[in-house]
Amino acid sequence: MQIYWTKINKIIEETPEVKTYLLDRPEDFTWEEGSHTHFALKGFNAGEKPNRSLIRHMSISTLPHENSIGITTRIKEQCSEFKAFLRNHQVGDEVAIFKTHSNVPLRREDKNVYLLSSGVGLATFRPLVLDYLQRADNVNQIHSLNIDSSKDFLFTNVFESAPEKKFTSQFVDNRKEYYEEVKRLAEDKNGLFYIVGSDEFLVQNIEVLREQGINPEQMILDKHEQKMSEFLSVEMSI
Fold first, then answer.
1. 3-47 per-position pLDDT tens digit
2. How is the chain split into domains, by residue range?
3. What is the pLDDT of residues 201-228, one digit of tens each?
4. Where, by residue number, does the polypeptide cross the bilayer (predicted)?
5. Cα torsion at 166, 170, 175, 181 (round to 10°)?
């Protein structure tokens, strides 16, 4: 396993609680849209065993051509040890990344794509949207639906409807409106539905989509194959 040590080159305050840490891109490090990585803080491998409290599974919110590895995360006042430690990191501090993989690359199957996300889950979809806006081959259109009760919506400069490019973006701040909209989107019985958020959010969306007649093969989750099968199994319920 290759561990890439790199430095924070910029910290962007997206909202009062959300920050993006832009990391220098190592020369031989590459990734595709929808990728996640293991993001680790200094000291995680200092002992005989890795200190798992200093490692988190994070989505990469940028594309390679942006030449920085973006890690976007919500850091609340009351937070985990990892995020408390991360909050004190400054530009120039070293961090590590390893085991990078994409579970949710953009499927180009001549279908409509629906991106369903909660809060900072939108960071996973930012690269998919940028990739589509650069090259729309074999994607009919994309619609993004994000729910964030904080009302501090993320990446509004990217998630801005562009009808001429067949891209629409929608933000809502309550569950009732969100699930009503999911049902409306599910009227497209051939669409592809990407879902990113907490496990509870995934389960609720899967249930709503199933009720509307959407098949498991049309749902794409940011989970490895075995976990995805568990979430999409018939027995799964809230």
1. 999 999 999 999 999 999 999 999 999 999 999 999 999 999 888
2. 4-102, 111-232
3. 999 999 999 999 999 999 999 877 777 7
4. none
5. -40
CATH 3.90.950.10 given to domain 4-102 = no
Task: Quote the pTM value.
Answer: 0.91
Q: Are 94 and 7 in contact (CB under 8 A)?
A: yes
Which residues sit opposite 221 in a β-bridge?
195
Q: What CATH number is given for 111-232 in this structure?
A: 3.40.50.80
Q: Rg for the chain (alpha carbons), in Å?
A: 18
Cα 154–Cα 156–Cα 157 angle in degrees, nearest 5: 130
| 145-192 pLDDT tens trace | 999 998 899 999 999 999 999 999 999 999 999 999 999 999 999 999
121 vs 233: CA distance, rounded Å: 23
CA atoms within 13 A on the CB side of 228: 15
